[in-house]
Automatic annotation (TrEMBL):
The keyword Protein biosynthesis does not apply. GO terms for biological process: DNA strand elongation involved in DNA replication. PANTHER family: BETA SLIDING CLAMP, DNA POLYMERASE III SUBUNIT BETA. Transmembrane segments: none annotated. GO terms for cellular component: cytoplasm; DNA polymerase III complex. Coiled coil: none annotated. Keywords: Cytoplasm, DNA replication, DNA-binding, DNA-directed DNA polymerase, Nucleotidyltransferase, Transferase. It is found in: Cytoplasm. Residues 1-119 form the DNA polymerase III beta sliding clamp N-terminal domain. This is Beta sliding clamp. Belongs to the beta sliding clamp family.
Length: 368
């Protein structure tokens, strides 16, 4: 193996595939990056057996070959090199020679024979979606996945494709996030993708890229292709909760409010709520005003916001964190809150469109 390329391009490629490398493993080979030189240039692969990331970059290939290098060490070496041409050669005795300007490294490498091959995903049915849109859909759902490994299916996001519409759903037992978007493809599909996978897909997406993201789904794997980068992930097994049954069909109170205004008020109220047991903030909705309060051993806070109310007055309480998380990912200026009773889930969504719905369970008040 012998190739040369720019230090910046190589560092960029390493940073992409390194996200797939296993941080905690008993198999040393999984701590490495697989590097292959061929007539296409340089192919780099990192995998932890759950996720595999492959990236192809241009390079001046003088001799074809395959090697596996320690990801952490190789990354640190390339990062510290000057911004110049890097020349890399595989020598005898598993020594990799790295030259750049007046710097030269020689490091030991692994045999590539033990490196696991990425699963082969037949790209018979490929869906296409704008990279900017999918990036936004991940941002607006993945935060609501569960951190509880005892219910693994809830640690992922449901991707449900129905008639060129992609529904992405995340829930953790206390809240639910639903985002809808347009996707092109000829068939319906339903899979649950690990949150970790979608976070890594989010990192490789370029919102300014006109070329769409290509998605291939099978019974066991999902393949995401963005330009020269491919990410393959195992899917989560099991039956996802029927989220459509959870969403309320009606409401008695609808509050229209400035998103930034209510976010700022809840964030201030949460400064005291964090000192309590449930991060609890109380909403009192009455006529044209919403009062947000929070009490703890350290004191109390009182906020008032002007609103437009349709329907009944209501007093209800929520975990402040759950509201803050959702308000931070809604980009619209105005939002609406829908309530039925103070023991029923509340709904938060943008006023101007129906693409995003967020449900959160209330906290029972002492007086209830």
């Amino acid at each position: 193996m012998h190739f040369s390329c720019s230090q910046k391009a190589l560092m960029h490629s390493i940073s992409i595939v390194q996200k797939g490398v296993s941080a905690k493993t008993t198999l040393p080979i999984l701590k490495g990056i697989y590097i292959e030189t061929n007539n296409e240039g340089l192919r780099l692969v990192g995998t932890d057996l759950e996720i595999g990331i492959e990236h192809v970059m241009e390079a001046d290939v003088l001799q074809e070959g395959i090697v596996v290098v320690d990801a952490r060490l190789f990354s640190e070496i390339i990062r510290k090199l000057p911004d110049a041409e890097v020349d890399i050669t595989l020598k005898e005795n598993n020594q990799l020679e790295i030259k750049c300007a007046s710097t030269e490294f020689n490091i030991l490498v692994y045999s590539p024979d033990e490196f696991p091959e990425l699963p082969i995903v037949e790209e018979d049915q490929v869906y296409e979606i704008a990279q900017e849109l999918f990036k936004g859909m991940i941002r607006q759902t993945v935060f609501a996945t569960s951190q509880d490994e005892s219910r693994p299916i809830l640690t992922g996001v449901l991707m449900e494709i129905e008639e060129n519409t992609l529904n992405m759903v995340a829930l953790d037992g206390y809240r639910l996030a639903l985002r809808k978007g347009k996707i092109s493809g000829n068939s319906n599909h339903k899979v649950v993708v690990p949150a970790k996978t979608l976070n890594e897909v989010n990192r490789i997406l370029n919102p300014d890229e006109e070329e769409p993201l290509h998605i291939t789904l099978t019974n066991n794997h999902a393949l995401f292709t963005a330009g020269k980068t491919k990410l393959i992930s195992r899917l989560l097994e099991g039956e996802f909760i029927n989220y459509k049954q959870i969403l309320p069909k009606e409401h008695r109170s609808k509050v229209t409010i400035k998103g930034k205004e209510i976010l700022n008020s809840i964030e201030r109220a949460s400064l005291l709520a964090k000192e309590g047991r449930n991060n609890l903030v109380r909403f009192v909705v009455n006529d044209e005003k919403m009062v947000i309060t929070s009490n703890s051993e350290l004191g109390k806070v009182h906020e008032e916001i002007n609103i437009v109310l349709e329907g009944e007055d209501i007093e209800i309480a929520f975990n402040s964190k759950y509201f803050i998380d959702a308000l931070k990912v809604i980009d619209d200026e105005e939002v609406c809150l829908e309530f039925t009773t103070n023991l029923s889930p509340g709904i938060l969504k943008p006023l101007a469109n129906e693409n995003y719905t967020y449900l959160v369970l209330p906290v029972r008040l002492a007086s209830n």
